[in-house]
Design a protein that fits this description.
five-stranded mixed sheet; 4 helices; six-stranded mixed sheet
Length: about 160
């Protein structure tokens, strides 16, 4: 590939993270920060997909276990567990992931739409699959991870 072609290719900047054995990525522009696991306060009557809330420098944000949201078994948090703080539907939300791996810059042309049947994960969350040298990266659309009803429930928590 010539240098000219590389410059014209759209570059995706992603934060990649692990849930189980799979590697996922989200658009870095949606990520406000990545924090270590911290004390999560349970909230009575919170939607079942919300683990609780954390106090992030004076801001109370709901925290969602991404494993649960993706239909995977819960896992004990460890030293690698992180909370990815993102903006979804105008609200700040934390997603718990097993580990954050790296910040990637990949050309958009190495991604393709997800196959019709993607084992283990609800395909509507998946924006694309990136083919890296030795691995696949599943790009998640965080706006679609939460249903309209779930966004309404989150809004109730934040008010």
């Amino acid at each position: 590939m010539t240098a000219q072609k590389v410059e014209n290719a759209e570059i995706l900047q992603l934060v990649s993270f692990l849930i189980g054995e799979e590697e996922y990525g989200v658009d870095i522009l949606l990520v406000q920060e990545i924090i270590r696991m911290m004390e999560i306060t349970k909230v009575p009557n919170a939607p079942d997909f919300v683990d609780g809330v954390v106090n992030l420098r004076g801001r109370i944000i709901p925290v969602i276990d991404l494993r649960t949201k993706l239909g995977m078994a819960r896992k004990e948090h460890d030293k690698n567990t992180r909370i990815i703080v993102v903006e979804v539907a105008g609200k700040t939300v934390g997603f718990i992931v097993d580990a954050v791996t790296e910040v990637l810059r990949i050309p958009a042309n190495i991604t393709e739409p997800p196959p019709d049947i993607v084992a283990g994960v609800n395909a509507e969350f998946i924006k694309a699959v990136g083919k890296l040298d030795d691995r696949l990266l599943i790009l998640i659309d965080l706006e679609k991870i939460l249903s309209t009803q779930e966004k309404i429930e989150l809004n109730r928590m934040n008010n």
